[in-house]
Structures are given as structure tokens and as C-alpha cells.
Amino acid sequence: MPAPPPANASSVFHRAPREKPPVAVRGEGVYLFDAAGRRYLDASGGAAVSCLGHGHPRAIEAIKRQADQLAYAHTAFFTSEPAERLADFLTARAPAELSHVYFVSGGSEAIEAALKLARQYFVEIGEPQRSLFIARRQSYHGNTLGALAIGGNAWRREPFLPLLAPAIHVSPCYAYRDLGAGESEDAYADRLAAELEAAIVEAGPGRVGAFVAETVVGATLGAVPPVAGYFKKIKAVCERHGVLLILDEVMSGMGRTGYMFACEEDGVAPDIVTIAKGLGGGYQPIGATLCSRRIYDAIVEGSGSFQHGHTYIGHAIACAAALAVQETVEDENLLANVRERGEQLRDGLERALRDHLHVGDVRGRGLLIGVELVEDRRTQAPFDPARRLHTRVKTEAFQRGLMVYPMGGTIDGRRGDHVLLAPPFIVSAEEIDEIVGRLAAALDAATGR
């Protein structure tokens, strides 16, 4: 007989097995509660997921109602009413070029589907030599092998490099550190577009299939938006060379930046876009890949099927929950609150931290806000990575009943620290003030200010 586990040991393989996380037992609005009765203000939406907050009755009722009717029917045999309705809802509000939706169970799956769809598209149209993808350093596109291969998060990639397919990486649009002295944003965007074009040309005629980028860079860089005109210039480069533009809006899409699709603010329409997190708001696991009519038609007129699939794609309960979430966001005009509370959060942080020696930049769009931490704001010098400042900030914030999403390696995968904030769309003005106050106190404690 195997030896019994130690008392109070968990059989769950937790993310950090040496630590014992508190047990979450209840959620209400922007707050989570643990088994000891402590309350936490969810200022990161978990991982920028909980757009409606916790315990929203409309989402819960949709799940119950759909479970009573139909929980699961495999998509090799059936479609379902929730999947059809959700696809119609999304395509009616997406950039006009995006006509069809492929449902999956999360962001990494959405990226995998996008990569395989782009590859199959070129096979179908007689350009099988297009097998390379270009992405950006310090990007994050997911933890599956395809997503890691194109991703630029060095820390996550390193242990698995022997397993990853080759990809090309170019510079991110990271104005805080990379905008040249005296360089205009327009000239900076031109420089980055030229770098992409050079990479496409260097790869060889007709070898690059797609350029993949987060519309607003999330976890790895900490809510870094593009400079004005960047994506229009990038799109023009892609079109000149027959390269698809894939935008990763797993974190920034579905209202997080104040627009249903973040690329609306940039005035561009990608060939493929991926969404997840805010799509279902955490009420069920769901993601999606949207593609243009041109790509869809190539598949239909070619082999007739997308050579891809997972067991739970198009899950009826997940689609019903996501539709309820999206209808609630629209019916309650929550995108307006995202823009208003986002502006309040940025302004509040800038006022509270303007004299903080260790805060280099406050940035973002809507309710996707990043705070970059530095040893000296005058030089932008980062902290010694050995200090693991981002983890100290998380600990200090959590002790104050505040959930934030910190990350290290902001600059190059090793150096740099930031904190990401992504509170629910329902957050109030008073709760924004609470976030600012608690985070400022946590930063002071973590940096020893």
C-alpha cells in the first residue's frame, strides 16, 4: 500500500507546488473571498479574464438554462444554437472582413488554430512554400508548442526550445524604451515597418505566411499599446508581400481596451484575429479564431474542411455563457465604463506615483493598464533581476487584499519588472480609487520606499 499523503497535503499539481494557495470559495462583483473569510479586490480580473466580475446572475442563468437543454454534442455530428448565435453576434460586430468564427476552449488553442489555418490557407491556394511566421520579441501568444514557437517570451520559451518550430522575431512597438531621442512616433512606426519588410525579404521570396502580433501587448510587456499609425504601416507591408496579418486579442479584445475588438482603435482589419479571456469572462472556458471570407472560401473551395479540431470546440454551455456575457456588456453599455474608469485609473496612478522614484511608466488602453518599475526613473535602469521585485509586489498587494498581475523580464526576458491591471468592466469609481491606494502602498512596501 502506498504511504498516505502528509496531513493537509494537496493532490492538486498547483502552479507553484511549494506554496499553498488560499482556497477561493465565493465571488461577488469585483471581489473574491477565501475560505478564511478574507476579501480580495480582483484588480487583474484573474489574468484579464473576469470582465463581468464574479457571480453575475445573467451568465449563471444562461449556463443553467443551457445545461437543462443540451450540455455537449460533438461538432463532427452537430452544431448548436448557442454556437450559431454567438458566431452571428461576433461577426456582426467584428471588422467587416472577418466573416467566420472557429470556437475553441482558450487563448492558446485559438492561436494554434490561427497558425494552422494560415498554413492550410496557403496550401489550398497553391503556395505551400509559405511556412514561416514572423512575430515580435517580448510578445506572448500562449503556452502550447506552436504558440510558444512564435511567442517572444524568452523565459517561457527557454526550457522547450528544442521542441519549437523555427520562427522569426522582430522588434516590438515599445515606445517607452525604444523610441529614439528626437524621433517622432510616425518615424518610429516607419522604422519598425521597415524592419518587418526587411525580415520578410531576407526570409526569401514567398516563404513568410503571416505576421503575428498582440494589438496591445499584455502579460510580457505590461499593457504596451502601439504608437499611432503603427498597424496601418504593418498591414501595408504585409499586403505588399502577400503575408497574412494575425492579431492576437486574447487579452486585449472583447472590450478590454474600450472597444469590442482592440484593432478598431487602430483602424485596421486583420486577416485572422484570436479572442478568449473576456469572451466568456471566466464563466466557461472558451476562445475563438475569426477569419476573413477570403481564407474561409479557400478552405471550402479547396479540401473542404479545416484539418484541425479539439474535443470541446463549440461547446454548447461555453457558447451560451459567452453569449450572455457579450450581450450583457452591450446591453449595459459597459464599454463606456471601461473607457471612463480606464481614464480614471491611469490618471489616478499617474498622480499617486508621479514622484515615485521606482515607477518609470504608466500606460495602456481602457482597463488594460501597466506600471513599469525601475530602479531609477531618470535613467530607466531596471532593478537587479535577483530581487524578483514583481513577486514582492504581488505578495504585498495580496496581503492588502488586492490582486494584481506582475511579471519580470519586461525588457528582454530577464531584466525589468511591471505590474498589469485589468479590473472587471463593472468596476466603480470608488473601487478604482481603492485599487490606486492599495497598489501605491504595495509598491512602497516592495521597493522599500
Q: Major beta sheet, specifics?
A: 7 strands, mixed
| Widest sheet: strand ordering | 4-10-9-8-7-5-6
- Following the backbone from N to C, one meets helices and strands in this order, namely EEEHHHEHEHHEHHEHEEEHHHEEHEEEH
How many helical elements? 14
The SS-based structural class is alpha/beta
Separation, N- and C-terminal Cα atoms: 54 Å
**Helicity range:** 25-40%
Mean pLDDT: 96
C-alpha Rg (nearest Å): 22 Å
Give a count of the beta strands, DSSP E runs of length 2 or more: 15
Low-confidence stretches at least 5 residues in length (pLDDT < 50)?
Answer: none
Strand content: 15-25%
Gross morphology: globular
Q: Quick gist of this model?
A:
By secondary structure, the protein is of the alpha/beta class. It is built from 14 helices and 15 strands.
Q: How do the helices and strands line up, and which of them pair or pack?
A:
Layout: E1 24-28, E2 31-34, E3 39-42, H1 45-48, H2 57-69, H3 81-93, E4 98-104, H4 107-124, E5 132-136, H5 145-150, H6 154-157, E6 168-170, H7 175-178, H8 185-203, E7 208-214, H9 230-240, E8 244-248, E9 272-275, E10 287-292, H10 293-301, H11 316-331, H12 334-353, E11 359-365, E12 368-373, H13 389-399, E13 402-403, E14 405-408, E15 417-421, H14 429-447
Parallel strand pairs: 3-13, 5-6, 5-7, 7-8, 8-9
Antiparallel strand pairs: 1-2, 2-3, 4-10, 9-10, 11-12, 12-15, 14-15
Helix pairs in contact: 2-11, 3-11, 4-10, 8-9, 12-14, 13-14
Characterization of the model:
With 449 residues, the chain is an alpha/beta fold. Helix content is 37%, strand content 16%. It has a seven-stranded mixed β-sheet with strand order 4-10-9-8-7-5-6, with helices on both faces. It has a four-stranded mixed β-sheet with strand order 1-2-3-13. It has a four-stranded antiparallel β-sheet with strand order 11-12-15-14. Strand 2 (31-34) and strand 3 (39-42) form a beta hairpin.
